[in-house]
Amino acid sequence: MHVNASPGPSAPGTTQLADPLAIGRVSRIIRVDDRSERVPKDKWYKDGLNFTCTQCGNCCSGDPGYVWATEAEVAKVAQYIGHPDPRLDQRYLRRHGGKFSFVEKEGGDCVFLKRENGKTYCGIYPVRPLQCRTWPFWDELLGSRSAWDSAARRCPGMNRGEHYGFVRIEELRVQRTW
Ligand code: SF4
Fold first, then answer.
1. CA distance 55 to 156
2. Please, which residues have CB within 8 angstroms of residue 128's CB and are 6 or more apart in sequence?
3. Which atom of ligand 1 has the smallest separation from the CA of 136?
4. Chain-centre distance of CA 135, in angstroms?
5. Which of 1, 91, 117, 126 has its CA at 20 to 30 Å from residue 22's CA atom?
6. What is the residue-averaged pLDDT of the chain?
7. What is the pLDDT of residues 16-58, one digit of tens each?
8. Is the CB of 113 under 6 A from ligand 1?
9. How far apart are CA 99 and CA 94, in angstroms?
């Protein structure tokens, strides 16, 4: 999670993330010694949210989309699947606007989505990129209750199962590195 709960040199008691972009955003609202009182009253998800993946595969299939991966994430995937090139190749990766996204198979499945006996699973789950690791706690879905509920109509894992408290949601929302 890249959270260093040790007091930082300039902000005692403040939760810190490894990514400098994230530090400023999360440290304004979260203090590890005073979490409950510091939860902003205006966040619609201040009481937390529920999510447990049902492995339906909807988020890895269907309409065209992008699963972005950094070069470091691509290299992790290559190592995991035993590919000789840390940059993978065009069977797995495409370029769009100077960034990398995983290839989609015919029908819209992510190239790494596996289907077996009516079940789906991610073939690179332990090394899946950040975009997949932080779903559904994305900025755009947390922007409003209606955006969240709209996504939940396609993701049966949302609004059920494991409870995520406000602090954990915020850590995921601002996470930018592994
Ligand atoms: S759509 Fe939701 S429940 Fe289905 S596989 Fe994706 S995260 Fe899991």
1. 9
2. 112, 122
3. 7
4. 4
5. 126
6. 82
7. 333 333 333 343 334 433 455 566 778 999 999 999 999 899 9
8. no
9. 8
Residue with the two structure tokens 């900025």: 139
Do the Cβ atoms of 39 and 165 come closer than 8 Å?
no
Phi, psi of 58 (to 5 degrees): -55, -40
Indicate the top mutation candidate among 131, 134, 155, 164 to test ligand 1's pocket, ranked by most ligand atoms within 8 A of CB: 155
Asked whether 119 and 150 are in contact (CB, 8 A), the reply is: no
Q: At 98, is the pLDDT very low, low, confident or very high (cuts 50, 70, 90)?
A: very high
Pocket of ligand 1 contains residue 110 by CB under 6 Å:
no
Q: Which residue's CA lies nearest to atom 7 of ligand 1?
A: 53
Contact 100, 89 (CB under 8 A): no
